[in-house]
Amino acid sequence: MNYSYPISYDWTTQEIIDVIKFFEAVETVYEKGMEREQLMSAYRRFKEIVPSKSEEKKLCDEFTKTSGYSSYHVIKKAKEAKNGDWIKME
Description:
- Belongs to the UPF0223 family.
- This is UPF0223 protein HNR31_000910.
- Pfam families: UPF0223.
- It is a single chain.
- The protein is 64% helix and 4% strand.
- A two-stranded antiparallel sheet has the order 1-2.
- It has helices spanning 13-31, 36-49, 53-67, 71-80, and strands at 34-35, 86-87.
- It contains four helices and two strands.
- It is mainly alpha-helical.
- It is globular and about 35 Å long.
């Protein structure tokens, strides 16, 4: 990994850790796959920290530009899946 995660300096240390965990979960879905509920748990926590759709889009677009991984497509696929499903991006 040769990129940094998008963060806000307004967040607490724990919020920064939780946002990074969400972006790491997106990476894991691309690289190995992940159980849907584990991914959605990380996403729900991310949304508690970043409730605004426009801020979410800004952070996710920044992450996509630096990493090449689309959190939008990962979450879209996870929302279409059922609990217990394994999510993996092709």
